[in-house]
Amino acid sequence: MKEKLREIREEAVKRLEQVKTSQELEELRVKYLGKKGALTAILKQMGALPADERPKMGQLANEVRSAIESKIAEARGEIEALAMEQRLKKEALDITVPGKEHDMGHQHPMYIALEEIKEIFIGMGFTVLDGPEIELASYNFDKLNAGEGHPSRDWSDTFYFDSDSRVMLRSQTSPMQVRAMETMPLPIRIIAPGRVYRKDEVDATHSPMFHQVEGMVIDKNVTMADLKGTLNTVVEQLYGKGTKTRFRPHHFPFTEPSCEMDVQCHKCGGVGCPTCKGEGWIELLGAGMIHPKVLEMSGIDPNVYSGWAFGIGLERTAMRRFKIADLRLIFENDVRFLEQF
Ligand code: DAH
Fold first, then answer.
1. Residue 192 domain-assigned?
2. Nearest CA to ligand 1 atom 5
3. What global pTM score does this model have?
C-alpha cells in the first residue's frame, strides 16, 4: 500500500507539472482526490490493514493528499497568471494611435428659434400643445369664423384630401385654438407650434410647407392691453431690451379687433434700409382679440370670458435672428449652411 501511495504521488505530481488548462487541472483533481479518485480508493482499503499499521498508513496518505493539493494550487496559480498575461497582451491599448474625429451635430436654426420662443412662453406659464397636420376644414375654417366662400378655402390655396373639401393639410396653426378650447379647462394659456401647408410656389420668401407658432390666452377680464404687454415682453426677450414694436389694424376672421405687430428694423433702427424695404419696420405676427363668435362656437360664454391670440411665422423669426436672406437655405439641408449654427 505504501508503494501504491508513492506511485500515486509521483504520477500525480508529474502530470500536474505538465498541466496547461484549468479544465485539465480539474480533471486531474477529480482523478486523484475526487470521491472515486485514486487516493480515496486506497483509503477505503485501510480497514483491511492490521490495527498497528493504520495510523502510519493514514499519516502517509494525508501527506500524499497535501502534496497533491499544494501542487494543484501551484498549477492553478500558474494557469491564472498565464491567462492574465495573455489577456493583457490582447487588450493592450496603443495610446499612440491617433484618435478618430467625430463630427458634432448642429441644431437646425429653425429648431433654435423654436426653442427660444418655447422657453419664453413656458416661463410665462403657457402650455405647449402639439396638433394634427392633417386637419378637418371645420377646425381650420368654420369654427374660426371663416365660413364657406372665404377666399383662403379656395382649392388654389389649400391642399385638400377629398372632393368635398372636408379634410386638408392645415393652412395655419389656428385650428389648435379650437382644439384647446374644446378640451382644456379655463383659463387657457397655450402655444402650439407646427408645420402648415399652402399652395405657394417656392421662392426666397415662400415655401408650400412652413412653420407657425399659435398662441392663445382665455380668461376673465382679458384685454388688448394684455396682448400688447405680453407680446412686447416676448419681443424684448427675442430681440433685446428696448426693442420697439407697433400695432397696425388688420383683418382676420377669428379676431375682432385684429392687428399686425411690427418690430423696428434691427439693421437701421427705424430709418429705413434694404432689410426693412425702406419701411423702418418689419412685420412679425398677426394677432387680435378672439372673436365672440369663435368663443361661442367652442362652448365658451363671451359675456364671461375674453381672450387674445396670435400667430407667428417661425421661418421669418429664424431668418431675422440668424440673418438668413433666402428661405430655401432653411430647407435644403446643405451641410455648409447648417454647420454655421
Ligand atoms: N392664422 C393667421 C395666419 O396664418 C395668423 C394669426 C393671426 C393667428 C391672428 C392668430 C391671430 O391667432 O389672432 O396668417
1. yes
2. 311
3. 0.71
